[in-house]
Design brief:
Helix content is about 35%, strand content about 15%. By secondary structure, it is α+β, with helices and mostly antiparallel strands. The strands form 2 sheets. It has a 5-stranded mixed beta sheet. Strands 6-7 form a two-stranded antiparallel ribbon.
């Protein structure tokens, strides 16, 4: 048996957060999400959890499990030991129990313009990419926007104006895409005190990504792109007009 400690908190009732404890049989193949749903179905239907696909695709069930951000649907209960603690993602306000208010996360995402920007006339067929160009952005496209990385970042805990690792990965996904023409606007948006220069390379975001994306590579790549752009501008300014 595994002892599952689940954080409970209902701000509407003005109660203090506390841990509910349940004994769960750790049968092979049972995920943390399965265990939580068993509790919800059989013991206490008031337990609030967010989930959807149960397949590590939608990112909805990201929670803090034994002090590490993970997807509950992807985490085998038997891999965690005999005592398992489940808490909502840190850094966001709790709506109820394991459900947090993700609006600041989506606001951060919107700040980097997370969509294709094209200005050149549409080609007759689709905009093509070489395999090498695709390789450059491939890792960033794995992101399922679960929020595990941003929630683990201590800089974000202290200032929600910080754009955060998930949005930086999204920014890099488009800045590095050979088909996109909006890199300049995106770089402008992350080139400030809440952007890439605010990262203290704490690396918690790297350890918490359930898709093995390394946000710090994206952050460093964006910094390099900003430096290169600034050097190009400096050179351009120094060249006297002919
Ligand atoms: Fe935060 Fe990751 Fe940077 S944890 S400080 S975004 S390396």
């Amino acid at each position: 048996m595994t002892l599952l400690k689940v954080l409970r908190y209902d701000p509407a009732k003005a109660e203090r957060p506390y841990f509910d404890q349940h004994e769960v049989e750790d049968v092979k193949g049972l995920t943390v999400l399965d265990a939580l749903l068993r509790i919800k179905d059989d013991v206490d239907s008031t337990l609030a959890i967010r989930y959807s696909c149960k397949s590590a695709i939608c990112g909805s069930c990201a929670t803090t499990i034994n002090d590490q951000n993970r997807l509950a649907c992807q985490t085998q209960l038997s891999s965690l030991g005999k005592v398992v603690k489940v808490e909502p993602l840190a850094g966001y306000s709790i709506t109820k129990d394991l459900v947090v208010d993700m609006r600041p996360f989506w606001d951060q995402m919107r700040r980097v313009l997370p969509y294709f920007i094209t200005r050149s006339p549409d080609p007759e067929r689709e905009r093509l990419q070489t395999p090498e160009e695709m390789k450059r952005i491939e890792e960033a496209t794995w992101c399922i926007q679960c929020g595990a990385c941003s929630s683990s970042c201590p800089v974000m805990w202290t200032d929600e104006r910080y754009i955060g690792p998930a949005a930086f990965v999204k920014a890099w996904r488009f800045v590095a895409d050979s088909r996109d023409e909006g890199a300049g606007e995106r770089l402008d948006r992350i080139n400030n005190e809440f952007g890439v220069w605010r990262c203290h390379t704490i690396f918690r975001c790297v350890n918490s990504c359930p898709k093995d994306i390394n946000p710090t590579v994206a952050i460093e790549s964006l910094r390099k792109a900003l430096v290169k752009r600034s050097l190009r501008r400096k050179v351009a300014v120094q060249v006297p007009p002919s």
